[in-house]
Write a structure and sequence with these properties.
488 residues; six-stranded mixed beta sheet; 17 strands; Rossmann fold; five-stranded parallel beta sheet; alpha/beta
Length: 488
């Protein structure tokens, strides 16, 4: 560790993926030992790129990233790589080490206890893709913790976690004695342990450093923006006054022209003095998901479904008597691992006994892993593909409402941030006009500023809807007509 306690330093770091996509411009900041830091910034600003530079997976174009000598760094990613989903738990954890670890099983058991994913006699041999999204989130955290890092990097760690999982993670981070840097859009979660914030401005490409808890920093940023706006408003008045005087004296001729020139020079000086105020994180525009027309009767019926016993992992058949018509919204609840996502997938296919969708219904399916998106397609291709009547103008208009502009629309889906993929998925639903909407954790990866807008759109949706979400504040904003608790 350095004498001043700094373990990480970015010095004038610049980086761009290509000439059209700059991420950082001479960014500078430091992180001290044992601090708990949050990285803030809009979806697609480049927060995960900063993590890539810390782990040396990404090299800056210019500038330097200094990590103190012998500091171990471990990253818990947003999602488990697709190539790892076929590994067993043991194989997944073994990948975290360069050398063979002979006591890997007891070490796995130890970290699974820490992340509140209780061990089972056969858990080491279970394949990763057999776990729910929330359980995979716990495995991601455990895969970082098993390395016992001096610097722990957490990228959206609360995604897919149920209330108990978030509470457990919060208490863990409060007690954690080493350095943590977190990317998250969960304001309450962040405020519970944060003592500093790095704000990545998507417009200036700079990183600003603040001290304080999360809510304090948000207030500081708002006050600074207001102060800068007031200063600029005053300068704009003076600039206009000098320009008006310059024009007046310029028409007088003779010596008055010198006065006019001085007035113009003064106006230019004042323009240089204007502060480039922060452009606030933009919020997506209010939107409506149009429902498929000419649908009647019971759109979806659930007579029987399957859940998992969380102790034995064996399937359990359960009876139900649910029928969803237009303007009816069903909320599925239950702990991580009980089978909510599996049930949603079965619903989307309408092929399992006991689950029926009437013929001719267009199903809009928002999956938490975005596997309904083709990662090799461009955003343009993905959005156009779901339109019944192709209209590039209409598509671009909808896309713009979700902050998908010209610099993004020609990008491949696989190259987007997870938050941007989420916004593309919502834009597709608007263009698709489904009769049945199936939503699996639609708040994951999404900037918290967008959530009230999304909730309002779902509340007003006039088709049939099935929703899974572990964010109570989000669910409260949406009209729910019926709830199915998979744990009962």
């Amino acid at each position: 560790m350095s004498k001043d306690g700094v373990i990480l330093r970015f010095e004038d770091v610049s980086f761009e993926y290509d000439q059209d996509k700059p991420i950082l411009d001479e960014a500078c900041f430091t992180v001290r030992e044992n601090s708990k830091i949050t990285i803030m910034g809009q979806n697609g600003a480049g927060k995960s790129t900063i993590f890539g530079m810390i782990t040396r997976a990404i090299k800056p174009d210019t500038g330097n990233v200094h990590v103190v000598h012998n500091l171990s760094v471990a990253l818990s990613r947003q999602v488990i790589p697709r190539s790892d989903l076929v590994l067993t738990v043991r194989e997944f954890f073994e990948k975290m080490f360069e050398e063979k670890i002979y006591d890997i099983d007891p070490r796995i058991d130890e970290v699974l206890e820490v992340v509140n994913l209780k061990g089972h006699t056969k858990i080491h041999d279970r394949v990763i893709n057999s776990f729910s999204g929330g359980q995979q989130a716990r495995l991601l955290l455990a895969s970082a913790l098993i390395q016992d890092p001096g610097l722990l990097l957490l990228d959206e760690p609360t995604n897919n976690l149920d209330k108990a999982g978030i509470e457990h993670l919060t208490e863990f981070l409060k007690d954690y004695k080493k350095t943590v840097i977190v990317i998250s859009h969960d304001a309450e979660f962040l405020n519970s342990f944060t003592d500093g914030v790095l704000y990545l401005d998507v417009f200036t490409k700079k990183v600003e450093q603040y001290v304080g808890n999360y809510f304090d920093v948000v207030d500081q940023i708002a006050l600074r923006v207001e102060k800068e706006r007031r200063k600029n408003a005053q300068l704009e008045k003076e600039i206009q006054a000098n320009k008006d005087k310059s024009n007046f004296f310029a028409n007088k001729g003779g010596q008055m022209r010198l006065v006019a020139r001085r007035m113009r020079d003064k106006a230019e000086e004042l323009e240089d003095a204007m502060v480039e105020t922060r452009k606030e994180d933009k919020t997506i525009r209010p939107f409506i998901i149009p429902a498929q027309e000419d649908i009647n009767g019971d759109i979806l019926t659930i007579k029987e479904f399957t859940t998992l016993n969380l102790k034995t992992y064996k399937p359990i058949k359960r009876k139900a008597n649910i029928a969803l018509r237009k303007k009816q919204h069903l909320f599925l609840k239950g702990p991580n691992g009980i089978g909510k996502s599996t049930l949603l997938e079965s619903l989307s296919k309408g092929e399992e006994k006991g689950l029926t969708i009437i013929p001719g219904i267009t199903v809009g399916y928002y999956r938490q892993d975005f596997s309904t998106l083709n990662f090799d397609e461009t955003v343009y291709e993905s959005l156009m593909s779901v339109m019944d009547k192709k209209s590039e103008e209409g598509m671009r208009s909808v896309a713009a409402g979700f902050l998908i502009h010209a610099d993004v629309i020609k990008s491949k889906i696989g190259g987007l941030s997870e938050g941007q993929k989420g916004l593309v998925a919502f834009a597709r639903l608007v263009l698709q006009k489904p009769g049945l909407l199936i939503l699996d954790e639609p708040t994951n990866h999404i900037n918290f500023r967008h959530l009230p807008v999304i909730a309002e759109a779902l509340d007003k949706y006039e088709g049939a809807m099935v929703l899974v979400s572990h964010v109570p504040e989000f669910v409260k904003r949406i009209r729910i007509d019926e709830t199915l608790d998979l744990a009962k």
